[in-house]
Every structure is written in structure tokens, then in C-alpha cells.
Specification:
339 residues, alpha+beta, five-stranded antiparallel β-sheet, three-stranded antiparallel β-sheet
Length: 339
Amino acid sequence: MMDWILPLGFLLFGLITGVIGEKFIFKRLEKFAFKKEIPGSHIIFKSLKRMPFIWFTLAGISAAIVSAPLKPDVVILLQKITKIAFLVSVTLVLANLVSGFVKLYTHKTERATASLIANLAKACVLLLGVLLLLQTLGIEITPIVTTLGVGGLAVGLALQDTLANLFSGFYLIISKQVRTGDYVKLDAGQEGYVTDISWRNTTIRELSNNVIIVPNSKLSSAIFTNYHLPAKEITLTMNVGVSYDSDLEEVEKVTVEVAKEVMREIAPKLIENEPYIRFHTFNDFSIDFTLYMRVSEYFDQRIGKHLFIKKLHKRYQKAGISIPFPIRDVYFHGKVNDG
């Protein structure tokens, strides 16, 4: 019985140290890092959650195994199990760290990241971890890799559609024809913001908050408009008509002033790109022109048109500029039967 006091002491010490490390030291370090706003700290501490307790406990178990009065073959088996548990935990931590920092980097460079890239990085780390575990267990890796290579052809033939979507997803991301956060309109008429590009589908969120799921292979071969390329800013156009007795110089002045006022509200950073109008048609009832005004992105067209129409209507009334509407004079030949 006395032989088990030291192993139990190591085990208890590992558990207590793990609890202290998790509940006090780890938590305080986490709060300090968040308070100082250290870049990537949320990724690190999220990946390491529960790990201090697990690692200290495994250390206590390892010490207990070495000091316990056990048979050599049992000691070797338990040490191998402990080592495997430690390698699994380290692999999971590294996979989460790599995935998190890939998301952080791509978010800084491209506003958002496709889950395909982060998941691929995570899968690579997990694969390396599995190979290392197999090596630890004494299993030869070379025959497994050879088997996977031979069986890869059969798997590829069985999963043609899946692999087509996977490689199409890579193509979309690498070519940067579509990025998460872009506003796109498909040739079938659907439109919305790209929220994610996964290993199989591209997710598009409509303005109505509905979600469109498009297979990557379909999107890569489709004709679509990306309203965020080559730049996010776009030109809003509005067609307006004024009566023939209007002073066109005054019309241009008032219209541009209203457009500038709208731009100051919704796109102040683009105010250096002055709005302008171009008269183009002597119509049946009006002289027509088109207003050209820059807005920050595609979605801002709605609020831009809304504000412009309200403000322009008010200014035209104040300036005495009329927007005509169609009038038809109808003439009747012959007598009209009153009865």
C-alpha cells in the first residue's frame, strides 16, 4: 500500500496544478491579453481552452505511472496511451491555431475569409498529427501512403462531383473573381452578398435575408456580375425629365447641388468625385437627362435614389422647375349622342 502513496501524490498534484492553472493563471492571462488588445490573443486562448488542465493532469499521470509498482509491459502501455493523449491534444491546439490565424490574416487582407481555406489548413495539420500518432504507435506510414495513392484514383472516380466542387472553390478563391463580402448577381437573376465559399457550395445572402446555395462548379462556369470588382464604389444613375420651359442651366445647377447633398450623407469619402448630369433626349413632354453620382457600394443605390428623389422634388418645387407628366388631347369627329 505504501508503494502507491507517491504515485497517488503525483496524480493528485497534477490534478490540483491543472485546476489552478486553468481557473486562475490561464484566466488572468486571458483577461490581461484581451485588455491589452494583443493581436490574435482571442485565437490563442480559445485554442488553449481546457488544455492547461489536461496537460498538467497528463504530466501527473506520467509521473504516477513511472513511480507506480507496475509490470514493465503495463508501464509501457500506459505511457504510450498518455503520449497519444498528449499528441492528440497538441494536434487539436495547432489545428485550431492555424485555422484561426488563417482567418485573421485573410480577414485583414480581404475583409473576410472563405471557410474552405481555413478548413484546408486545419485538415493539413490534423493529417500530420494522425501520421505522427501512427508513427508513435509503431505503424509504418509508407505502406499507408502508398495504399492511399493507389486508392485515390478509385475515390476520385466515385467522387467526381464533390471533387469538381472542391477544385472549383479553389479556383474561385485563387482567381479572386468572387470573394466573401462581394455583391454578385447571377445570370439566372439571383443576387446578394457572398457570405462563404465552402468545399462544396458558395452561400449567397439576398437582401431579403434569404440564403442561396450555389454549387461551386455551377458558379465557376456561370455568367455573373460582381458589383465589388474592380472596385466596391459604383455609379448611381437616375433618369429625370423637366418641362420645355425650364432654364436648363438652373436645372443642372439645382440637380448637382442636390446630388452633392445626398453624397455628403451616404458617401462623404467620395465627395471629390463630383456628380454631373447629361441632357440627352427631346422627349414628347420633357427634356430628359441622366444624373451620374458615385456611391460607396451597390446596396447604397437604394437609399441614394430614395433621398435624391425626395430632395430633388422639394428643390424643384422651390425653384419653380416642373417635372411634366403625359397629357393627351382627344378629339371627336361628328356628333356626340348625348342620350
